[in-house]
Amino acid sequence: MIGWIIAIAVVVILVLIYFGLYNSLVKYRNRVEETWAQIDVQLKRRFDLIPNLIETVKGYASHEKETLAKVVEARSMMTQAPADGRSEQMEADNMLTGALKSVFALAESYPDLKANTSFIELQHELATTENKVAYSRQLYNTTVMTYNTKIESVPSNIVAKMGGFTKRDMLATPEEEKVVPKVQF
Question: Per-domain residue ranges for the chain?
Fold first, then answer.
């Protein structure tokens, strides 16, 4: 009789451990999704600011059509990236970031544009949004690292395999952004 009680107690403890590990994996997976959603919110905010920026720049630099067309094209790529294709979304985001840098570089050639209050406000809003995107990307990578560690650690890796939990990819910095800018005086 004591043998059955011990066996039942062991089974109950194992079931409780399984459910505890499963629930923690679900919590970490949901946290990864939440942090991705935060990136999406910041990208949407930047996405909405771009038409105003383009219109402001057009007024001062109408013959810079190629630069403005790159921004519009990059913005269009953002809309065409599949909702579940995170790597495609990040690739389009990186392209848009590069195009926006070109627009801000234009301001150096047009002093009136550089002094325009609308342009200054938009530039400030976009810089703030870029910082939020960078922070959200960092938080996403931290959350993915925690989730992936949980999936690969013993004994939660057994529950992860049984529950179908899979590793997530971290966001990487594009090679062109890793180049250190050259400063000359």
Answer: 1-172
Select the CATH number that applies to the domain covering 1-172 from these four: 1.10.101.10, 3.40.50.300, 3.40.50.2000, 1.20.1440.20.
1.20.1440.20
Name every residue whose Cβ is closer than 8 Å to that of residue 52 and which is 6 or more positions away in sequence.
118, 122
Q: What is the pLDDT of residues 48-102, one digit of tens each?
A: 888 888 888 888 877 777 888 888 888 888 888 887 778 888 888 888 888 888 8
Phi, psi of 10 (to 5 degrees): -65, -45
Higher pLDDT, residue 176 or 96: 96
Please give the Cα distance from 153 to 169 (Å, whole number). 17
Note the pLDDT tens digit of each residue in 108-133. Answer: 888 888 888 888 888 888 889 889 98
DSSP 15-63: HHHHHHHHHHHHHHHHHHHHHHHHHHHHHHHHHHHHHHHHHHHHHH-TT
What is the pTM assigned to this prediction? 0.79
Closest CA to 169 of 96, 95, 88: 88
> Which amino acid would we find at residue 164?
G
